[in-house]
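User: My notes are a mess, but here's the protein and pyridoxal-5'-phosphate's SMILES. Can you give me a structure?
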Amino acid sequence: MLTNRQLFLKYLGQTSPSPMLLEISRAEGIYMYSPDGKEYIDLISGVSVSNTGHSNPKVTEAVKHQIDSYSHLMVYGEMIQSPQVKYAERLASLLPPSLGSTYFVNSGSEAVEGALKLAKRFTGRSRIFSFRNAYHGSTHGALSVQGSEIYRNAFRPLLPDTHLLTFNEEQSLASIDGKTACVIIEPIQGEGGIVLPSGDFLKKLRTRCDRTGALLIFDEIQTGFGRTGTMFAFERYGVIPDILLLAKALGGGMPLGAFISSHEIMSSLISDPVLGHITTFGGHPVSCAAGLASLSIIEDEKLADAAERSSAVFKKELLHPLVSEVRGEGLLLAVRVKDPGAVRYIVSHAPTHGLILDYFLFCDDAFRIAPPLIIKNDEILKACSRIKDLLDETMSRNS
Ligand SMILES: Cc1ncc(COP(=O)(O)O)c(C=O)c1O
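Assistant: No problem, the inputs look usable. Here's the predicted complex:
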């Protein structure tokens, strides 16, 4: 009989020459467990998804309650489904009035697709700007605005009239012109290796968009829901986008995405043609119920503030001869190492130290730390002690 590992390699479509190949049978809080009971501290939250921890009882209860009432009823936007309505209302209560209309989809990539279409439709223009080292997803439109030529070139032709700017380079903003439908940006670049916007770069970008009539899209798919120490990263920088993209933690561990805008902008999907974006499963009631429960936990337990405090503990504890910098906001951190060749060793050997760590797509000299926001002080100390053992081992392998 084949093992699950063999079945995984035989029957699941593979995209990586070196997948993690960890089998997990249970996950709770910040921990994952293998079938033989080995404990792993999850330091990546399934890539910024599990902000309220794994198997959070309140989220599980919301899922069970909703599935007992109904699951899928009808394609998005036709029937009044209370989990969607309640969640959209709650999001609106947290966001500025100009972000009062939420369109729920299935994923981050679909949120990007919806937002690009919305911007083209509202402005009647086609030109789109994005930034080098940006990651916005893997579908064709999202890939067209991805900031890596290596990934894009393999799949050309992509969306026409898409152009890359350099993050934090103010003079490049002059390229945004009257033909531009939108500019899409992560306010803090994630896969680029947690790159923070410098000075008033985002404010200057906002001003340029206002001058030219281009819509400003913030991709907060990775930075949302308390991850960077505020509920949304845009709050840190005092810049409000025209369209906000959410996914990942939005669903509390269930698949869910959203593009959010003003009623005026969003209404351009209603006519000429009608049904400007269609999704069967978008805003699935079970995902919305889970997401709403998760958001309530983030608010009630003040997890954004907790992320800010925990960030300082990681930064203080991770002093090590191999570490040159721990950068980032809240619990979206990049640990930069002095020997870039060591990153592969560190991430691939993390499981033997009871840790789950991850790479960045576009940053070779750092690894990611983004645990569930519920992580407690003693758990951070335990995780950092394991990381330092791993870093010692990494250094000794070279000597
Ligand atoms: C900033 C950002 N945007 C978009 C996406 C795409 O989201 P999804 O994988 O749900 O399609 C990701 C996924 O990692 C992301 O980090």
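The pocket of pyridoxal-5'-phosphate is lined by residues 47, 107-109, 112, 135-137, 186, 190, 219, 221-222, 247 (CB under 6 Å).
User: Great, I'll file this with my notes.
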